[in-house]
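Protein of interest.
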Amino acid sequence: MRESDEGRTSGRIVETEAYVPGDAAGHAYVGPTDRNRTLFLRRGHAYVYLSYGIHFCVNVSGATPGVGAGTLLRALEPLEGVPLMQARRGTLRLIDLARGPGRLGQAMAIDRALDGTDLCACGPLWLADAVRPPGKVKASVRIGISKETARLLRFYEQGNPHVSGPGALRR
């Protein structure tokens, strides 16, 4: 859920990637820095970063205080505020609104100002209850990384058209 001056947008999380403690592909691997400090907070905080200098992406911190770990939100199935997401993304194609972490960030108006937000409390960005149970959840290799590439730490709802990545990684 995202509350902004423009209105509310929301979506079902249908794809994630985990970055566990000690994972060389994760931003926490180098230890705490000014950029990644929220990955070292208690579970449930937003870690927002700029990817490739273009798109803001959001992770959910996933460990105990002082231990760096997180889960990247890779894709949402849009629910509320679809016209607002379409305007932010510059497309009417529902499938392209939040399919991929950069698109998700843009559709939900996520930027560095939301870094550190407690996602377990009502505020400008939070995790809400599921609107319906998930379908079958599958695991695959993560997308777009160059270290620890064989780990099955990407999780997605099988058959959901809003899941990102190549076809072989969506079945």
Remarks:
- Helices lie at 82-89, 101-107.
- The chain has one domain: 2-134.
